[in-house]
Design a protein that fits this description.
This protein has 70 residues and is of the alpha+beta class. It is 16% helix and 47% strand. It has one domain. β3 and β4 form a beta hairpin. It comes from Schumannella luteola.
């Protein structure tokens, strides 16, 4: 996937040990980037769908992370 064009909004996801990933609004939708691998994972149509994708990319059994807009 090529690097998406970012716009003004970013949400950082925090688990018990700290930041686990982020969601970025782009011209095409929302992209997820995990701290563990640093790559963008698809384009999602809504923030809620992107949040679900980020949680799904976490270690199985992980609690839902807290999302903070930056």
């Amino acid at each position: 996937m090529s690097t998406p064009t970012m716009t003004r909004q970013t949400w950082v996801a925090f688990g018990p040990a700290g930041a686990v990933g982020s969601i970025h609004r782009t011209d095409d939708g929302f992209v997820v980037k995990m701290v563990s691998d640093g790559r963008y994972r698809g384009v999602y149509p809504s923030l809620n769908v992107a949040k679900g994708a980020l949680h799904a990319a976490m270690t199985p059994g992980s609690d839902w992370p807290e999302f903070h807009e930056h």
